[in-house]
Amino acid sequence: MADSTTHKNAVLSRMTPGRWLALVLVVLAVIFIFQNTSTISISLAWLTIDAALWLVLLVVFAIGWIAGWLLGRRKPS
Predict the structure, then answer these.
(1) Which residues, 6 or more positions from 50, have their beta carbon under 8 angstroms from its beta carbon?
(2) Residue 41 is inside which H or E element, if any?
(3) Which structural domain range is residue 32 located in?
(4) Is 56 part of any domain?
(5) Domain tally for the chain?
(6) 23 domain-assigned
(7) Residue 48: inside a domain, yes or no?
């Protein structure tokens, strides 16, 4: 029994505020996905795509993240 308590305390001691925040964000993301499963149509020029709302938002987020990463890099002098 002491080993179990020691293991729990070791796991909880490694949970920094940043890890707690990450865990909360993951839980919120999962809730968001399950609540936004409806299919929507996206039109861009002549192309129309039907996809789940959560997937469209995830793709838009990824594109924005990649664009920010590419624009934020500094070239060495």
Answers:
(1) 39, 40, 41, 42
(2) strand 39-44
(3) 2-72
(4) yes
(5) 1
(6) yes
(7) yes
Compute and round to an integer the Cα radius of gyration of the chain: 20
Give residue 76's pLDDT band: very low, low, confident or very high (50, 70, 90): low
Q: Find the helix or strand (DSSP H, E) in which 44 lies.
A: strand 39-44
Residue for token pair 């838009």: 60
User: Which pairs with CB-CB distance under 8 Å and at least 24 residues apart come from 49-56?
Assistant: none
Beta bridge partners of 44: 47
Give the residue carrying structure tokens 């995830």. Answer: 58
Where residue 15 falls among pLDDT bands split at 50, 70, 90? confident
Q: Quickly list H helices, 1-77.
A: 2-13, 17-35, 53-72
Report which listed range, 2-6, 21-25, 72-76, is most confident.
21-25
Structural domain includes residue 77: no
Query: pTM above 0.85?
Result: no
